[in-house]
Amino acid sequence: MSKDPHPLRIPLILLATSLAGFFGLFLLEGGWDYAFFALSALPLVVGAWHWRRHAPKA
Amino acid sequence: MTTQDTHPSESIDARTRGRGFRINLWLHRWSSLIATPMFLVLCLTGTILIFHEEIDHALGVEPAITSAGAPARPIADSIATVMAKYPGQRILMAGVEDHNPNAGYFVVGPAQDTGFDHAQLVHVDLSTAAVVSDQQPEETFTGFLFKLHAEWFLGPLGELVGAFVALLVLVSLVTGIVVYAPYMRRIAFGVLRRGRGARLLQLDLHNFIGAVVLGWALLVSATGLLLGLGTVALGLWQYTELDAIKAEFSKGAPVDRLHIPVAPEAALAAATAAAPGWRASAMYFPDTQYATTRHYTVLLFGEKGLQKRLFKIALVDATTGALAAMRELPWYMKAINLSQPLHFGDYGGLPLKILWTACTWLTLFITGNGAWLWWSRRKRRAQPAVAAQEVAA
User: Fold this and answer.
1) Range among A1-10, B70-79, B205-214 with highest mean pLDDT value
2) Tens-digit pLDDT profile for residues B128-155
3) Looking at CA atoms only, how far is residue A30 from chain B in angstroms?
4) Rounded CA gap, A39 and A44, in Å?
5) DSSP B14
6) Are B213 and A43 a contacting pair at CB < 8 A?
7) Å between A26 CA and nearest CA of chain B
8) List of residues 6+ apart from B177 with CB closer than 8 A
């Protein structure tokens, strides 16, 4: 069993990241669009990375 | 997300935890299960509605107005065309689409009506004053789906049903975070326990995908809740602030609703002159539901940033053409206006729409697999021998 005192740290960081991205993209215009879109998509990217990392070896 | 009780050998037993945990587990389970059938419909229709612009364009139901650069003719010409097509009716509202200054629309209704119950939408090319389409939104494929998604074909009551579903999903998400914490102490983020039974794998997938889409799901369900309360909020505004405005500015004889002394252009010019940096996007004609008996109500939108999503209203005297008042919307109406793009994800181009679709489908998956986890647990409890075999295995 993990002894992590903050078990929700990763999900909450992902939550905050995606919300920052969605609201940033919504509120600001111009050159920041790509950065905020990247933040919005980061949880899915992290999820896909974890998925591949824990995938069974062929 | 759904229950945390898993394969017996891996169980996080709710009975050994505190009362708060058990309440959250119960709320998470039942809010999810009650919302599941309606949420499946919302996810499927929502996926299509994300691309409503592209679908409308492909189906050819968008009004064909290509004269974006041509000078507009006087609004009176367009009104004359519309009135010739709809004799015995009157203009209740007029507006222009964001993407093309010549893409005008008029809402017409019976001359004696002030409300919009029997209103019809007419699209007009303002550069030629020709009617280009009078297809009603609900007659299109995406309009039909929108009626299902937003109202369940029940009108304002259906909006409240949608708000209730959104509230259930919000409860499910928040309580899901609470019941997820003990799981995270045992299982590292992203670990999928393959080869140890379908239930464990589905539970890991449920929690893992739930954590990945949590931010999106919270945003979409919170904005869905606000949009579901839209008609209630509009009614509240109408019966408080708008009625006060009407009482204050309706003194004096009403204008002849079929022969309004001041032309719409003059009213628009008076409103925009009083609000630099704001553009007139739509106007309600005098003696309608959202105007006084002697004023136009002009909706002014900002030019950039957050102001593009919000509007304020200007009252213009329909007998003198003078600005009578300018009002901001209350906070709850602003919140609902801002919720629309944040709910449908149509403010960031195609990449954001694709991201919205991916999150919708992932949420659809965990909704279905959460229901399956609950069902398989019940089935296992009903067949103790099977459960014992699973433990032994």
Assistant:
1) B205-214
2) 888 988 888 888 999 999 999 999 999 8
3) 10
4) 10
5) G
6) yes
7) 7
8) A8, A11, B214
Region B265-283: mean pLDDT is 92
Strands annotated E in B178-254: none
Distant-in-sequence, close-in-space partners of B143: CB < 8 Å, separation ≥ 6: B136, B137
Q: Contact at 8 Å (CB) between B343 and B45?
A: no
Model pLDDT, residue B74? 87
pLDDT at B5: 45
pLDDT at position B386: 56
Judged by phi (left if over 0) then psi (alpha if -120 to 50, else beta), residue B136 lies in beta
| Residue position matching structure tokens 């909706």 | B299
Give the residue from B172, B237, B233, B180 showing the smallest Cα distance to B203.
B180
- Distance between CA atoms of residues B233 and A49, nearest Å: 43
Look up residue B242 and give its DSSP letter.
I
For residue B236, which amino acid is it? L
How far is the C-alpha of B134 from the C-alpha of A28, rounded, in Å? 36
User: How close are the terminal C-alpha atoms of chain B, in Å?
Assistant: 27
Mean pLDDT is lowest, of B97-101, B125-129, B231-235, for B97-101
Average pLDDT over residues B313-319: 94
Burial of B108 (0-12, 13-18, 19+ CB in 10 A): buried
Q: ipTM of the predicted structure?
A: 0.91
Which positions in chain A touch B181 (Cβ < 8 Å)? 7-8
**Contact present, B300 and B310 (Cβ < 8 Å):** no
Nearest neighbour of A56 by CB, restricted to B180, B194, B347 = B194
pLDDT tens digits for B172-187? 999 999 888 887 777 7
All residues of chain B having their beta carbon less than 8 Å from the beta carbon of residue A45 are: none
pLDDT tens-digit readout, A6-44: 778 888 999 999 999 999 999 887 778 889 999 999 999
Residue-by-residue DSSP string for B316-343: EETTT--EEEEEEPPHHHHHHHHHHHHH
- Model's pTM, two decimal places? 0.86
- Residues B19, B28: contact at Cβ < 8 Å? no
Range list of β-strands (E), B85-218: 89-96, 103-110, 120-125, 130-133
CB contact under 8 A, B212 and A37: no
| Strands B130-133, B278-284: pairing kind | unpaired
Contacts of B91 (CB under 8 A, 6+ apart): B79, B82, B83, B106, B107, B108, B285
Question: Helix, strand or coil for residue A52?
Answer: helix
d(Cα A4, Cα B186) in Å, to the nearest integer? 9
